[in-house]
Amino acid sequence: MTHDPGYNFAYLDESTKRMIRRAILKAVAIPGHQVPFGSREMPLPYGWGTGGIQVTASVLGPRDVLKVIDQGSDDTTNAVSIRAFFRRTAGVATTERTAEATIIQTRHRIPERRLTEGQILVYQVPIPEPLARLEPRIAETRRLHAMADYGLMHVKLYEDIAKHGHIATSYSYPVMVNERYLMSPSPIPAFDNPKMHMMPALQLFGAGREKRIYAVPPYTAVRSLDFEDHPFRPIRAPHRCELCGSGDTYLDEVLVDDKGGRIFVCSDTDHCQERQAMREAAE
Amino acid sequence: MSTPLMEARGLQLRFGRVAALDDVAIDIHPGEVVAIVGESGSGKTTLLRVLSGLMRPDAGAVTYRGQDVLAMPEAARRRLMRTEWGFVHQNPRDGLRLGVTAGGNIGERLMAVGARHYGNIRAEATEWLKRVEIDPARMDDIPGKFSGGMQQRLQIARVLVTRPRLVFMDEPTGGLDVSVQARLLDLIRALVADLGLAVLIVTHDIAAARLLAHRILVMRQGQVVEEGLTDRVLDDPQHAYTQLLVSSVLAA
């Protein structure tokens, strides 16, 4: 497959990609630390994955196989469009199979299938600063990171328990990376947090509007913050997937009629299809 | 006498043509309450901010338990600020997180120094609310719903929870009505004696200084014009300005 000759390979020019790669290398060297980068204007609005696309463009090679998911799904507008974008501008092969992909760009989920050493997971990040809602001054949040002064984050969790009786943060649940930097895992469900811990794949995070890149290198400790007497719990809907019967995956609630009918199905469409195929093969 | 907890020598700081601090020296000993009195603009609050490391002087030295406060890296100073030191602001809104519950406000310093057991933090917060005479049932209310006096007491609980050695207080009774002031002063006096705190308190209220302080420094135009034991300074003022200050106190 060849790419559209009207564009440089993977849309961005070579020096921009080099600049982003330098930021990525720095981010990998300091796990969890947010590295500023010169985010470019992309042909889609902020909030639609401009950060993730720039990171993907910078690490993409002609032989890579790209998968893009949006809330776990391969066939939503955002996922379809970004896949089409890279097929056109980079001519790379795309896939919906997690196992076949070398680069997976994601919005708000980590695939259920365990990722492997050759793979890179690229997250789209709206708000990279985990302390953003607690400390409005960016200069001050950077100082807090520098001093590893993270008492404030625990105040937020304390308030959750005081108000709701348990830690009610169910997505974008703050993590400590390599026991040094507090990091926002992007708005993935807390259910996915444990998958980040010691993951064999490289995890890269791109925030286009906020102009930050951060990373978790392979096999790095990622710990969800909690209290000794209120330990972290990955939360999922207490149901089975209507389609594949899975009882241990993250589920979406889907309304099926206007009479209150609803079903729960896997949010990771590829994983769900794989399980359905396996079930059919067994029958 | 014991060695001072904090020592400052030759402090100088100018704001343009105004000398806010002009060769100021001060010692604070463990367990001692020192009051700085003087009129508005005499440099009291500036001195407090310089001693607590919030502001850098143009010249002079500040040492705390043998460490040079001005040369200290920021990380070390912040650590002091959340463990061995405390700062009580005049306006409780500056010292409290108004959107965070009373319990969370008290717990913040505990969590900042590594407390990770929710139940223990709650128990400690309950204990401190009682000590500052706030009903523990209001632990999960936000301070925005508290009266001014309650907010100030909450701020004191939030600062004292980690049992600091040295507390800076900037007009802690300012802006409160008289009966509330009296209760607050009483409370501060009891806590200070109980915990053996060293306190540096800035006030323009001579009566408050007499009630709380062991020693008084009188400041005027950036200089310490008189210094001594509270009763001595207030009963037998030597400097003309101190005499004026003492004679200006209204008797009810």
UniProtKB/TrEMBL annotation, chain A:
One of its GO terms (molecular function) is alpha-D-ribose 1-methylphosphonate 5-phosphate C-P-lyase activity. This is Alpha-D-ribose 1-methylphosphonate 5-phosphate C-P lyase. It comes from Falsiroseomonas stagni DSM 19981. InterPro entries: PhnJ. One of its GO terms (biological process) is organic phosphonate catabolic process. Catalyzes the breakage of the C-P bond in alpha-D-ribose 1-methylphosphonate 5-phosphate (PRPn) forming alpha-D-ribose. Belongs to the PhnJ family. It catalyses: alpha-D-ribose 1-methylphosphonate 5-phosphate + AH2 + S-adenosyl-L-methionine = alpha-D-ribose 1,2-cyclic phosphate 5-phosphate + methane + 5'-deoxyadenosine + L-methionine + A + H(+).
UniProtKB/TrEMBL annotation, chain B:
Residues 6-246 form the ABC transporter domain. CDD domains: ABC_NikE_OppD_transporters. It comes from the Bacteria. Gene3D superfamilies: P-loop containing nucleotide triphosphate hydrolases. The keyword Cytoplasm does not apply. InterPro entries: AAA+_ATPase, ABC_transporter-like_ATP-bd, ABC_transporter-like_CS, P-loop_NTPase, PhnK. Keywords: ATP-binding, Nucleotide-binding. One of its GO terms (biological process) is organic phosphonate catabolic process. Signal peptide: none annotated. GO terms for molecular function: ATP binding; ATP hydrolysis activity. This is Putative phosphonate transport system ATP-binding protein. The lineage of its organism: Bacteria, Pseudomonadati, Pseudomonadota, Alphaproteobacteria, Acetobacterales.
